[in-house]
Design goal:
The protein has a five-stranded parallel β-sheet with strand order 2-1-3-4-5, sandwiched between helices. A five-stranded parallel β-sheet has the order 7-8-11-6-12. The chain has 19 helices and 14 strands. The longest helix is centred in the N-terminal third of the chain and has 25 residues. It is of the alpha/beta class and 465 residues long. The N and C termini lie far apart (72 Å). Helix 18 crosses helix 19. The chain folds into four domains: 129 residues, Rossmann fold (3-Layer(aba) Sandwich), CATH 3.40.50.2300; 166 residues, Rossmann fold; 77 residues, Helicase, Ruva Protein, domain 3; 56 residues, Orthogonal Bundle (Arc Repressor Mutant, subunit A), CATH 1.10.10.
């Protein structure tokens, strides 16, 4: 069990010394209070994991302390103690009010430690149950990584191998390619899956806050540090820490992360006590770390410690054959989230999806599909709204690009998709005029109307204001 901070309220210095020795010998930190009033003040400052209190004390007695603690800190267990003459009725009252245990003086050797660690263990079990219930959907996150591209199949195989190890992993790739999803898949299929997965975006916080967030701080370590606070590494003990945007971490903090990776040791900000954290580290970045090393922005030794197993996530534009699969996956996901029943995506909409460059990668595709589901009133997404594409995102050869994307579809759907897209562009060019559009397409107006009906195209939608 990780060392805890235990508040002991006892007006007898002899008993206090005995309890302190027993708990400190077990590795716990003890905060001493000579009465209930002082105990309440210490408790209000935070950082207390357990309260052990005498029943009979001046000013504020043990039952009053128990009542206040249950209201202000419901997750902190309280153990009461009293002499044998007070035991029967007081014990019943204490347990009814939520005490974790009740000890009768004179205390036997080891009794306080056993009661304290039993209460603390119960808290950890309850917290773990709450955590697992929140994360239960994430445990199968491997199935949420969609793709049939050969590079994605290689990533799936690597994840399966990594899941059985404790190796440090460095995931690289552009923003939105699914780096955190891969990190979650590794964790939730590993022996650490029953413990916490703790993500932190290293680029979202200034250096002084990031250090405290990662390693915690002691009370008084800096202005505003009114209580001791544990950091992400300590909180994730036994689990996995995911350091997203690791390339944004300043050099001073890089040294401390290197120490965690080498020795699993660290100190809180403003503290001198050496602490240990048994965590697996998975890091991710969209930066070129070797270049950052050459510029003196990133430590070379940290890079080699992180890069034990490298995983590169390809951008979506390099695996466009996965677009129909991903679009369908996000359609089902959006339906479930929004409680809608949009069944499919039109050939024209899918054609636009296939031609778009997707600079925001998988994340952008998911947002686009969700927006389309929100706006769609019928059973099919007829149109996809995409932002204008910058010139440097356009394919060099539009005809070859269209052919490349259509060849990913079955022949019937490819022909159907091209025809709908073609007719839409022609109708748009002639503002919905059937005669002019039919003449341009080389077909008669009746044939054009029949095709428009089949593709659910309405000339009104092409009329210019």
């Amino acid at each position: 069990m990780r060392a805890k901070t235990i508040l002991v309220a006892e007006d007898s210095s002899t008993i206090m010394a005995m309890i302190r020795d027993e708990l400190e010998e077990a590795g716990h930190a003890v905060l001493a209070a000579e009465n209930g009033k002082v105990a309440l003040q210490i408790l209000s400052e935070g950082g207390v994991d357990l309260v052990i209190t005498d029943l009979v004390m001046p000013e504020v007695d043990g039952l009053e302390l128990l009542e206040s603690a249950r209201k202000s800190h419901p997750d902190v267990p309280v153990i009461l103690m009293s002499g044998i003459e007070k035991s029967a009725d007081a014990a019943v009252t204490a347990i009814r009010q939520g005490a974790a245990d009740y000890l009768i003086k004179p205390l036997k050797e080891g009794e306080v430690r056993f009661a304290a660690e039993s209460a603390l263990h119960q808290v950890e079990l309850e917290e773990q149950v709450r955590y697992l219930s929140r994360e239960v959907r994430e445990r199968n996150s491997f199935s949420n990584i969609v793709g049939g591209n050969h590079r994605m199949r290689e990533i799936f195989q690597t994840i399966e191998i990594l899941a059985d190890t404790d190796a440090t992993v460095l995931i690289t790739g552009e923003t939105g390619t699914g780096k955190e999803m891969v990190a979650r898949a590794i964790h939730f299929n590993s022996p650490r899956k029953e413990r916490r997965f703790v993500p932190i975006n290293c680029g979202a916080l200034p250096a002084e806050l990031l250090e405290s967030e990662l390693f915690g701080h002691e009370k008084g370590a800096f202005t505003g540090a009114s209580r001791t606070r544990i950091g992400k590494f300590e909180y994730a003990d036994g689990g996995t820490v995911f350091l997203d945007e690791i390339g944004e971490i300043p050099p001073a903090i890089q040294v401390k992360i290197l120490r965690i990776l080498q020795d699993k040791e660290f100190e809180r900000v403003g503290g001198n006590q050496l602490l240990r954290a048994d965590v697996r580290v998975i890091a991710a970045t969209n930066k070129d770390l070797p270049q950052a090393i050459s510029r003196g922005e990133f430590r070379e030794d940290l890079f080699y410690r992180l890069n034990v197993v490298p995983l590169h996530m390809p951008p979506l534009r390099e695996r466009k054959e996965d677009l129909p699969l991903l679009a369908r996956h996000f359609l089902e996901k959006a339906n479930q989230k929004l409680k809608k029943q949009v069944e499919t995506i039109s050939a024209e909409a899918l054609g636009r999806i296939m031609l778009y460059h997707w600079p925001g990668n998988v994340r952008e595709l998911e947002n686009v599909i969700e927006r389309a589901v929100i706006m769609e009133r019928g059973p099919m997404i007829a149109r996809i709204e995409l932002p204008s594409v910058p010139a440097d995102h356009l394919p060099a050869n539009g005809g070859e690009a269209l052919a490349d994307q259509l060849v990913m579809l079955p022949l019937e759907r490819a022909v159907d998709g091209f025809e709908r897209l073609y007719l839409s562009r022609v109708l748009d060019r002639f503002s919905g005029n059937i005669g002019e559009s039919a003449h341009h397409a080389g077909i008669n107006p009746r044939t054009l109307n029949r095709k428009m009906t089949r593709h659910e195209l309405d000339k009104k939608q092409f009329k210019k204001a």
